[in-house]
Predict the 3D structure of the following.
Amino acid sequence: MLLFTTVAEYRTQRADWRGKTVALVPTMGALHEGHQALIRKAGTLADVVVVSIFVNPLQFGPQEDLAAYPRPREQDLAICEQLGVDAVFYPSPLEMYPDGQDSLTRVVPPATMTERFCGAFRPGHFEGVATVVLKLFSIIQPDFAIFGEKDAQQLAIIQKMVRDLNLPVRIVPHPTLRDGRGLALSSRNQYLKAPQEQEAALCLSQILVGAQQALKAAEAPLPAEETLVRLQDAVLSPWQTGPVSVRVQYLAAVDAVTFQPTAWLKPGVRVLVAAYVNQVRLIDNCLLS
Ligand code: PAF
C-alpha cells in the first residue's frame, strides 16, 4: 500500500495511473465498520482505491475540540492495508492549508442547504466540509467518491457542489449500516455506556421505521408535521419518566435533493432526526419508499 503525505508525491503517482479509474473514500480517520463498508464499495467501482485521512480543521467550530479528535494513525493504516487499499493520502494541515485558514478561498454552499438541521447547530461546518472535499477532489482526481448516507445533509451539499461546479466525479452514496436492532452505526455509539442508553438510542430508528410503515399503510401522502409529531410522542413516551433522557433536537421531512422541508411524507422524501440520549447526540435518517 502506498502512503502519500504531500500533494506533489501523490500527483506523480496519479500520472502513472492514467487510463485507470480511481475511487476515493474521504475520511477523517478513526476508521470504523461504516468506513470499511465504503472502502469495500470503492473496490467494486474502480481499478484503484484511495483513502484520504485528514482531520479537517476548517469544519470544526470554536466550541468543538479539534485537538481531542482521535487520530489512531497506525490502526487506520493497518485497516486500509487489510482491506487492500491501493493508496492512503495522509496530509498535514500545513500541506492542505499552506497559507493558513484566514485568507483561504472557500466553497460557500447555498444557505438554504446549510442553515437548517445539523448546519443550524454548527455554523461554518458545511463550508469547511465543502472546501476540503473540493480540494481533495482536485488533488486526488477521482472518478468516483463514496459518501455515507448517514450524513445525509453533507451528502446532499456535496452532490449540489458537484452539479453546480461541474466537477468530473461521480458521487456514490452508501446506505447506512445498522446493528441487529436498527441502530445506525456511528463512532458516537461508544459513548452509550449503560444498556438503557443503548436501548433509548433505538428511538431514532424507531421513529424512522414508524414513518415508513405509516406511509405504506396509508398508501397516500401523509401530512409530515402531524405524522412525525405523533410518532415522536409515541416512541418517546416510555422514556418520559426514568433514568435516561431522550430529547429530539430536530425531526423533519425534506426533499432528498434540495434538502428543503416538505409538507408531505411521500416516496422520495428523506426523514431526518437528531436526538440527545443523555449527553450523546445521535443522528439518523431514511429515504421513504
Ligand atoms: O464525513 C467526514 O468524515 C468528513 O466530513 C469528510 C467528508 C471526510 C470531510 O472532511
